[in-house]
């Protein structure tokens, strides 16, 4: 399957594994690269820029195929040293970066000067157009279904992706709610040049989260997410559990961040992934949980998606326009 995205980014398949806090580590990203898809290490999962340099080196020991690094730039009271992480990425010779969280304009000149291609992930057409104007090479657009931060517009992918692709000139990667070949083919039909998945890649053998988390994703349905931080205009879609329920409940009483900070602390979420204690804190997952029934290796997942996508196009879709009508 060749698209503008596979051509421009030098990958075999139009499939991306987006940055994931605590999950986007060497083992997963190398497995994604080996499968012919494009994986992103998550810069801020590493405590310091020096640790990121080591993680990049560790990934290179596991694969010689291309991979990238996600740099998520979120508003914060004490921001991480973004410029230093960016420098670590550049000096490590990384050639593909996924930016997310806010406008990448401050980082772009540095990345471009170093010959880095940038995929900017955003959640609205207007932000995608702005990113195109400032010179990113592709945009990844998250629909409301997605895990993590869906923005505040609540527009699902079925509308958001074609609304974007009909206005943008650069390659578009559809993200959010995609977990199988049907989602891949649908995204291409909506005008996208590729897809991005988070939750689906988190539920693979190589994903470095506790097995209990993967089993819970398999058990969960499309209804098992909660939207937290709505009242703070910084919405996040996370897995349903007692903690996310408590956050939503406190928010409904008009709370401030200080009232929920102890529940949503990053260290607690990390404990879920490391110890498999599903009620230890908030953990990110999307509605695509309802489409996930197994824990395959990354290679099995990507092979299956590509093979099934080809057969959906060749058999099912061609059948609708050819001689016979097929179900
Ligand atoms: C556990 C987890 C952590 C995530 N952390 C980040 C992050 O740090 N930065 C980012 O840009 N996106 C993050 N995301 C979002 C994913 O990159 C991707 O955009 C999203 O998962 C797509 O929706 P899907 O889960 O329905 O495939 C995270 C997603 C998950 C599941």
UniProtKB/TrEMBL annotation:
Coiled coil: none
EC assignment: 1.3.1.9
The protein's enzyme class: oxidoreductase
Pfam name, any one: NMO
Keywords associated with the record: Flavoprotein, FMN, Monooxygenase, Oxidoreductase
GO molecular function: enoyl-[acyl-carrier-protein] reductase (NADH) activity; nitronate monooxygenase activity
Gene3D superfamilies per the UniProt record, alphabetical: Aldolase class I
Name recorded for this polypeptide: Enoyl-[acyl-carrier-protein] reductase
Species the sequence originates in: Rhodococcus aetherivorans
């Amino acid at each position: 399957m060749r698209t503008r995205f596979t051509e421009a980014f030098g990958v075999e398949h139009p499939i991306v594994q987006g940055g994931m806090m605590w999950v986007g580590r060497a083992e997963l990203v190398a497995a994604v690269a080996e499968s012919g898809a494009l994986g992103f290490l998550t810069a801020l999962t590493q405590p310091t820029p020096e640790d990121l340099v080591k993680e990049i080196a560790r990934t290179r020991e596991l694969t010689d195929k291309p991979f990238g690094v996600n740099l998520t730039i979120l508003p914060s009271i004490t921001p991480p040293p973004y410029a230093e992480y960016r420098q670590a990425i550049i000096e490590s010779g990384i050639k593909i970066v996924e930016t997310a969280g806010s406008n990448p304009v401050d980082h772009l000149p540095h990345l471009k000067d170093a010959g880095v291609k940038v995929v900017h992930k955003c959640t609205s057409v207007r932000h995608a157009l702005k990113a195109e104007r400032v010179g990113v090479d592709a945009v990844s657009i998250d629909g409301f279904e997605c895990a993590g931060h869906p923005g505040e517009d609540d527009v699902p992918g079925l509308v958001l992706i074609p609304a974007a692709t009909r206005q943008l000139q650069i390659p578009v990667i559809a993200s959010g709610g995609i977990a199988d070949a049907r989602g891949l083919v649908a995204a291409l039909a909506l005008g996208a040049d590729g897809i991005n998945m988070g939750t689906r890649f988190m539920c693979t053998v190589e994903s470095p989260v506790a097995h209990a988390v993967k089993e819970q994703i398999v058990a969960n349905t499309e209804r098992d997410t909660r939207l937290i931080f709505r009242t703070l205009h910084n919405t996040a879609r996370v897995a349903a559990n007692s903690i996310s329920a408590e956050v939503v409940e406190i928010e409904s009483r008009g709370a401030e961040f200080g009232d929920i900070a102890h529940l949503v602390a990053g260290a607690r979420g990390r404990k879920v992934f490391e110890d498999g204690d599903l009620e230890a804190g908030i953990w990110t997952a999307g509605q695509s949980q309802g489409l996930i029934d197994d824990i395959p290796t990354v290679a099995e997942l990507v092979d299956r998606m590509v093979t099934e996508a080809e057969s959906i196009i060749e058999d099912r879709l061609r059948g609708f326009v050819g001689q016979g009508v097929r179900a």
